[in-house]
Amino acid sequence: MSIYSINNDMINSDEELLVAPNSTENESVADTKNCCKTRHVLALMGFLGIANVYAMRVNLSVAIVTMVNNSAIPQVNPTANESNVCLAPILNSTAPQPDGEFAWDEKTQGLILGCFFYGYVLTQVPGGRLAELFGGKLVFGLGILITGIFTALSPLAAKLDTWLFVALRVIEGLGEGVTFPAMHSMLAVWVPPLDRAKFASYVYAGSNFGTIISMPLSGYLCSLDFLGGWPLSFYLFGGLSVLWFVVWIFVVYDTPESNPYITTEEKVYIQTMTGQYDHTPRRNIPWKSLATSLPLWAILVTNCGQSWAFYTQLIELPTYMKNILHFDIEQNSLLTSLPYLSSWWCGILFSLLASWLLHHNYISLLNSHKLFNTIGKYLYDD
Predict the structure, then answer these.
(1) Given 3-state DSSP classes, what are the helix, strand and coil percentages for the chain, each rounded to the nearest 5?
(2) What's the superkingdom here (predicted)?
């Protein structure tokens, strides 16, 4: 369960006139009166980009249900023990469910589903550094483009060789691994501190939105006979990511200074509120300070636990729903998407609650972060 915490100062952050940090009492800066600001374009494109990232990440979890020929597995692997498979009658399906074309046992399926994260974890830290050196726009965009291209090639790779398919999934993980660090970098440049958490919550809500859209749609596409059904989800989300990249390149810029379409008022507002952000990459990274930071380790351990539960459910639940509970592919994909729908809405609702508590000074910002993250973790674990 994701909970987005919004600073109480952000409640009034969209007002026309705001006092800049580090300014005197009489110094103020006006934001543009345009309803659609250039940083809003960044937020929208970032939201759609993150949605694409998760759509490509989770579609295999649904597609593999129809890709695998379960009846052929004992013939390929005579040691496979069917006693662990539920033999209950199929009560939730209205039609016979055909088997797929790949005789992958559970071990192979687990490797295929999990190998994405081998690449994903490797580019998390380098992704942030690459964004500093080459700009978040290029790193974020190329990460999604590379993932989109290899997602579209996945059906061909799966049919040619299992290990080739695994290699493509690792490359997709490498591509997606840079996206979140790169977006962090762009938000730091484009969004004033008072708006930053709010913008981040909107942009990263694309993760739940992409999952909600991808799972049912992938299930529907897998049920079709056209082009074999299951490859369609790879073609669709891979193609959408390529189209997204084309738009991203033309409408998003690394900095307010490099955007030719931004109004002078908005540019000055961002520059003033962000304190003239220094775009020069740091030569020396304080590795020792990072390694000895207790708050950093607390966040790291917490997120490791959350990610363990989140991704285990994300990649394994569709297979469990078919093999154990015997839901057909359309019912399966719809039901497995429901937790992410509730996560999306709960994130928004708890953000509003956090804002209300902060606005009325019922809780401090630090305690707000601790409280709502703790609630989210316990609700998810339960």
Answers:
(1) 70, 0, 25
(2) Eukaryota
Alpha-carbon torsion, ordered 356, 357, 362, 363, to 10 deg:
-140
Number of CB atoms found within 10 A of residue 95's CB: 8
DSSP code of residue 140: H
Q: In whole angstroms, what is the distance from residue 310 CA to residue 316 CA? A: 10
Give the Cα separation of 332 and 248 in Å (integer): 33
d(CA 9, CA 380) in angstroms, rounded, equals: 29
Q: In whole angstroms, what is the distance from residue 39 CA to residue 26 CA?
A: 26
Among candidate residues 195, 241, 231, 194, the one with its CA nearest the CA of residue 45: 241
> Considering just the CA atoms, what is the radius of gyration of the chain in Å?
23
Domains of the chain plus CATH, in order, are 36-77+88-276 (1.20.1250.20)
Q: Where residue 239 falls among pLDDT bands split at 50, 70, 90?
A: very high
The span from the CA of 119 to the CA of 100, in Å, is 27
Q: If you count DSSP H runs as helices and E runs as strands, how many of each does the chain have, helices first?
A: 16, 2
Instruction: Choose the most confident range, by mean pLDDT, from 95-104, 123-132, 245-254, 307-316.
Output: 245-254
Question: Which tokens in the block code for residue 29?
Answer: 């800066």
Query: Cα separation of 271 and 191, whole Å?
Result: 9
CA distances from 64 to 102, 253, 370 (A): 9, 38, 38
Q: What is the pTM of this model?
A: 0.77
Q: How far is CA 274 from CA 18, 35, 189, 287, in A?
A: 12, 21, 7, 25
Cβ contacts of 33 within 8 Å, gap of 6 or more:
16, 265
Are the C-beta atoms of 222 and 329 separated by less than 8 Å? yes
